[in-house]
Structure formats: C-alpha cells, structure tokens
Amino acid sequence: MKPTLVLVGRPNVGKSTLFNRMTRSRDAIVADIPGLTRDRHYGHGRMGDKPYLVVDTGGFEPTVTEGILHEMARQTRQAIDEADLVLFIVDGRTGLTPQDKIIAEQLRKTGRKILLVVNKTEGMASSVVTAEFHELGLGDPCAVSAVHGDNVNELVELALLDFPQPEEDETKDKHPKIAIVGRPNVGKSTLVNTLLGEERVIAFDQPGTTRNSIYIDFERNGRPYTLIDTAGLRRRGKVLETIEKFSVVKTLQAVEDANVVVLVLDASSEISDQDAHIAGFILEAGRALVLAINKWDGLDNYQRDTIKSEIARKLPFLLNFAKFHYISALRGTGIKGLLPSIDAAYAAATAQLSTPKLTRILMAAVEKQPPPRAGVSRPKLRYAHQGGSNPPLIVIHGNALDHVSSTYQRYLENTFRTAFQLEGTPLRVEFKTGRNPYAGKSPAPLSEAEAKRAHRRRRFGRKKYG
C-alpha cells in the first residue's frame, strides 16, 4: 500500500508549491497569500522511484480556538493522524519563528515520523540557512526550493527511504479484489450485501454510515473474491465531520489496493462533477472499472434517457472501455451480469500480451494509418512489447517517437484494445526512442582518394564521376 506523506506548516511557507512539485501538477492553488489552502488536498506523488500519496494542508495555527483557522487546524491534525510521514515545512528566508516551535511541539506529541524541510533556500548556502532550525530538535533539516525544484527529488528519496518498494506486479493475489466506491448514500453497502447474499455491512439511509474500508472475502461459483466496502467520497468542501475526513484517505488507498473498482452512481439524482472526479482518480490509479448505475427501478423512461445522456456528457472518457450496468441493489435487479463483467475486467487488466502479436498489430496499424510527420521526419514505430499489467502497459520502440501526437497514441490504444478484447481496463502506451549511435560523434576524416572524388562530384556533378 502506498505510504502517505502529509505537508504541514504555518501559512505561506510553500506547502502547496511543494505539493504541485511532488505531484507534477497544478492541482493546488498557489499565491503569495497566507491561508489560501483550507481543505486537505490529495494527490499521487510523481517524483522519486516509489509510489506514494501526498496530502496538502492549510496553514497550521494550533493555538487558535475558533473560526476558520480553528477548523483548518482541526483538519491538519486529522491529516497528521492519516500520515505515514509528516513533512514539516518552514521558511528559510523568514527564519525560525515562535509558531514553528509550537507546531514542532505539537508534532512531537503525535508520535509520527517527522522530516524537517526548510523551503525557499534558493541562492543560499544550505549549512547556513538550516543552522538555526536544529533548535527544533527534529533531526537534520533538508534545504529545498519548491519553486525552483532545488533538492526536491533528494527530499522525496529521503522521505521514502524507510518504506519498502512495492511489488511491481500487483496481481500477485490469485483472486480479484473489488473496491465498491462512489459518493455517500448511493447504495454501496447495499450492493455489497446483495452480492454477498447477507446483511454483512450496515446499510442505512444516511450519508456517511460507512466510516472505514471493510475487506470481505467471499466465494461465488467456486471462485474466491475480496470485496472492499468504502466510505463515500464527498466534494472536499462538503467534508466537514472529522471522522469522515479520516475515511477519505482510506478510500483512496482501497482503490490503490484493488484490482477492479465498481463505481456506483445514483440514478435518482443527477450525475455530478464529483462522480467524474472519482472516475478520474480511478483511471489515474490505473484500475479496471465497472459502472453500476443504482436505483434504476424507480425511474420512468424519460428519467432513464436523461441519466444516460448525462453519463455520455459527463463521463465520455469511460464509454470506450467500461461496462455499464443499470441495477437496483436493494431489489437485486440487474445484479446478475455484474460479476461476469468484473471477471472480464480483471482478466483484461492481468492479460499477458505476446510480443510477436503486439508487433504484428502495431505494423498493421501503422500501415493502415501512418503517424503524421513532425517537421521533415516521420516517427518510425518498429516493434512493441508488454511492459506491465494491471493496467496493461504496451511499450513501443522506434525513432523520433517524441513527436507522436496524443491523437495517434489514442488510435494505437484503441487498436490494441480491440485486437486483444481488453474490456473494462485502462490501457497505457509508452514510447521509447532508440539512441542514435552516431549522435555526438564527428565523422571520420576522408582518405585522399575519397576527398578528390568528393571534390570532383561537387565540381562536375554526380553522373560523370559517380
């Protein structure tokens, strides 16, 4: 399971800038205004050699007892409870402040692992700028510049040093793990109970009934499965209750731990932007996906057509590979085809694709539709092989592949998906350009005879002296 790194510090020390740097994104709003970040922000770490989750928090002012700053401090404390490692960010240009000392004392009491990070140190000697922060008693400070990226990669490697490298093949379990996810009160626990055939988890008509991810082993038709019932993922601005905040990271970790995710949508309400955000997170995690549109039995034909139109409009990126099931978890209708779709998605996610067949399909695709030119040259795709599974990764080798367009990449993804019947799983294509063996080398000098021949060609033309 991915470790969780939580960024903590007083306002305006550069936590959101570091978050964006570690996730290689612009997801966190950054400005020179204290207190801009209020809600916790989760993201996938994309620096370093190991996978991890990053949590950005608002400015931590633990001594405030009321108002929005108090709520922000409460959220930060909850984020610290979720952390495997806390990155305590301080400002190297401002220097050590009394509030830094208060936060350090609060962090020591939590018992969490702490790594002290001195930010905004560009153009400054590390030994000088970090000297006064040894007073906090949190070990050797790490000097970085989140804005310029100085030493951030070294920081990530240091933070992840004590966490083991996860297995590359996440399909080592011999049976599928199925995470049931969605917004609160869409019927996730009811669906789990229906699949199990018993009242295994609490199902109640109140959002937030499930607090933690619950792993349940069961068997169907002689095949073992593990169901993961998760807490509902609200929009961040709606996550107000402390216990429910703790559930968010557990749900995200459950998605990471699953082989197949069943995204449950509520047909009795409109398809929301939050549904699209959850689907996007599942795809970013590379998990196979099945959609269950619940509470379908209570709709008339007009309402059903409306929901289908909303799905096509708000979730178009799922239409080309994910299976859709219109169900009633409470009455058990439409459930019969759910497990076969899960089995198919799991098989597709863990499929072994032979190199000869991949290369033949690639050559046929290029012959049918060559990649567009990039300047004077055209990318040359030579062969393909499988680079991983869950999700399937196809690595294509050739020349000038840096210029392959995203449109042509999607064309290849769809071609491979159709040829191998990969239904229910994302598919990733990666390009690797071969190294030019003559790059950087000066040509060998011509012999005297070759030089005379080249001179005659330039002077009199190629035909007579070729």
From TrEMBL:
Residues the entry annotates as binding GTP 1: 9-16, 56-60, 119-122
Biased composition (Basic residues): 453-466
Location of the region described as Disordered in the Swiss-Prot/TrEMBL record: 433-466
Limits of the EngA-type G domain: 3-167, 176-350
Leader sequence segment: none
An example Gene Ontology molecular-function term: ribosome binding
UniProt: GTP 2 binding residues: 182-189, 229-233, 294-297
Record PANTHER family: GTPASE DER (PTHR43834:SF6)
Subunit structure: Associates with the 50S ribosomal subunit.
Function: GTPase that plays an essential role in the late steps of ribosome biogenesis.
Family of the protein in this entry: Belongs to the TRAFAC class TrmE-Era-EngA-EngB-Septin-like GTPase superfamily. EngA (Der) GTPase family.
Name listed for the protein in its UniProt record: GTPase Der
Organism: Nitrosospira briensis
Source species taxonomy: Bacteria, Pseudomonadati, Pseudomonadota, Betaproteobacteria, Nitrosomonadales
Designated gene of the protein: der
